[in-house]
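re: that complex we talked abt at group meeting.

here r the seqs, copy pasted straight from the sheet so there may be weird spacing, ignore it
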Amino acid sequence: MNGFQILRPSTVNETVSMMQSNEDAQLIAGGQTLIPSIKHGLARPAVLVDLTKVEAIRGIGIGAKEITFGAMTTHAEVAASAEVKKVIPVLADLAGKIGDRMVRNMGTIGGSVANNDPAADYPAALLALGATIQTDRRKIAAADFFVDMFSTALEPGEVVTSITFPLGAAAAYEKFRNPASRYAMVGAFVSRTGSEVRVAITGAAGVVFRFAAMEEALRKSFTAETADAVVIPHDGLNGDMHASAAYRARLVTVMTSRAVAAVARLQ
Amino acid sequence: MTVNGRKVQANVDDNKLLVEFLRKDLGLTGTHVGCDTSQCGACTVEVNGNAVKSCTCFAVRADGATVTTIEGVASPDGTLHPMQEAFREHHGLQCGYCTPGMIMSAIDLVKHRPDVSEAEVREAMEGNLCRCTGYQNIVNAVCAAAGSMKGTAK
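got the structure back, here u go
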């Protein structure tokens, strides 16, 4: 492992100024992706700015129409929160399926979102529910945030401080996970608000995306059978030793269909 | 930080992992390094009340934390923790390499979910791998300990 310095700010302002004054600095939240990357030599930061002590960006706040998660809220905290289970149970369910228990005790929602792994779970939830990412300097809509594989709309040194989800949608997440890494081979997040239907797919391509043809079909007829009949072309989907692109394409349909059935059961 | 009830102080390189600090600086070699890629759970320890992978945490980030390793779970008089006792009783180990991590993870699980079912144990222990594949007796041990730990402080 290469040598580096760890800085430990306790406020967002301190964090931002440390990021500005150290050109090669990288933020570290729970570290459950970044530390293995550093160990493998895939990341070689000179300076790590550690968010662990920034208390102001931790915790869950619930309003009448929205719920806000501080960026440093862990997956375990989201999964175990009685309030989250009550107002937006799909997020507790999703958080409880990330990695394993030890990873969930360290990994954070902000870290997951900022990292934008193509097979991460949270990006699908943000996109399908129309979440907003708050940073030290602005608000970014989820639709504008996830740009490409491991790439987001964040500027250099910009710090994600919280993520806000609107309440009220009926939603479900179905994930076919890789049994070793526990990442999504394909995950489908389906949300329904009145006549509006959104379907966000993770794990299948370079970056999370909305499956427009599926959404259109489901707006006309919101049934698992409708979802079963919508096929996604496998050109451009991920293919690797775990699953071919054609297999992932089929998983997109099947996972979406299961999520639709789960949403229908809620209503 | 406080490790197994003892205050320890040291200057360490920023890139030192918590598991290296525990094993090399403190000589607590009960915590094992298995895969070193955050998958096997052999290095599991408790930090501030939660089980974490000590191979995926820098030591300096545990500055000021309360850490418990496998060496710290038995009573000072040598009486085994109920989870250790259950692993002994149900032969929840074969080669024993994964055992410290299994026990630390299982204690954390039962502490947070005292009424855990067998199916939930299987799911919740997925972050701990046993290459001997001795899972059946491990699950038996965790379920038995969950029963005997009810009502105890630990």
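couple things i noticed - The helical segments of chain B are 18-25, 82-89, 99-112, 118-124, 135-149. The radius of gyration of chain B is 15 Å.
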